[in-house]
Amino acid sequence: MQQILRDNMTTLYLVRHGETVDNANQIMQGQTQGELNENGIRQAQEVSEAWKDRPIDVVIASDLKRSIDTARIIAEPHGLEVVTTPLLRERDWGGFTGRFIPDLKNEVWPDDIETLENLLSRAGEFIAYVKKTFPGKKVLAVGHGIINKAVQAVYYGKPMSEVQRMMNAEVRKLEL
Q: Are strands 58-62 and 82-85 parallel, antiparallel or unpaired?
């Protein structure tokens, strides 16, 4: 029985995309496509090199360019195509999108920011999607800072404030 449970266990390697031009310039990207900068490409290549001999069955990415580009670099040595999903998109920052992050510190949040409830619901849907679609597989998923934090908050049953921030190209392992 124990062996059957382990065989059906899906391993999720959650990755944050490499650094982007907007990350480096402290611009709130939200659901904009984003472009990896030279450092971000190098970060993705480092993950690719470190993971080239590890078993990965599936590579998933948010449907935003910065995640897809990171995922393609990581997937290349495995010969895997990247599956995309909007479930892994970054939080929609509404009126804050495209703004200089330090300027937002004392501002009132606009009404068009994706609610925390919706973000956490989407994170739960992502976990359910991975478990149902890829049972027993090793899945590497490239997302974004806030959605990855939400995925972990749902997984661990903790508030997002208790989940440590992920750095660009950082990998965390979750057993589903």
A: parallel
106-114: which pairs have CB atoms within 8 A and are 24 or more residues apart? Answer: none
Give the start-end residues of each E strand in 52-114: 58-62, 82-85
Active site residue 78: no
pTM of the model: 0.94
Query: Residues, the chain, total?
Result: 176
Structure confidence by residue, pLDDT tens digits, 57-106? 999 999 999 999 999 999 999 999 999 999 999 999 999 999 999 999 99
35, 76, 78, 90: the active-site residue: 90
What stretches of the chain adopt beta strand conformation (E)? Answer: 11-16, 58-62, 82-85, 138-143, 171-175
106, 114 Cβ separation under 8 angstroms: no
* Residue type (1 letter), 17: H
